[in-house]
Description:
The protein has 172 residues and is an alpha/beta fold. Helices cover 51% and strands 13% of the residues. The chain has one domain (4-168): P-loop containing nucleotide triphosphate hydrolases (Rossmann fold, 3-Layer(aba) Sandwich), CATH 3.40.50. Helix 2 (33-41) crosses helix 3 (45-66) and helix 5 packs across helix 6.
Amino acid sequence: MNLKIFLTGMMGSGKSYWAKALAGMLGIQSYDLDVLIETSEERSIERIFKESGEAHFRNIESNILRSFVSKDNFIVATGGGTPCFFDNMAWMNNEGITIWLDEPIATMVKRLIPEKAHRPLIAHLSNEELSSFLYKKRNERIQFYNQSKFILKEENITEENLLSIIKANSHA
């Protein structure tokens, strides 16, 4: 079986959580693209944005994403903006299974409030502004997220549904 799985969606949608959980169940490696970027750059994403700008970050992000071309049996939690740059969404669809975890804005807000300081795009926002920011970002990105091969919404984001998609679309 050769599994190449890419989880897409907004920050706070559960991509990192599900990547780790599914990797454990499937006996494959999980990767968090943001962690790989921080390791590669030897600095936090917050510092990368501040010191080198978003364009540099997006370039590194795309390069690291594409390094998965030579890997087998993995699941990647992508960054929220990953699908929106450098034809990354088309590349991921060509390489493997893409699943958009489409959680409601309210759920993402609740998850993100405690993490705001570590997320450069939302660190400066009040809790009230966070909701409208996420709504706006989702609207900007939805055209890319909608290109995912599979879309799971709210109550459909379950272990059973995720495993079903993966098993039905794996190549033995």
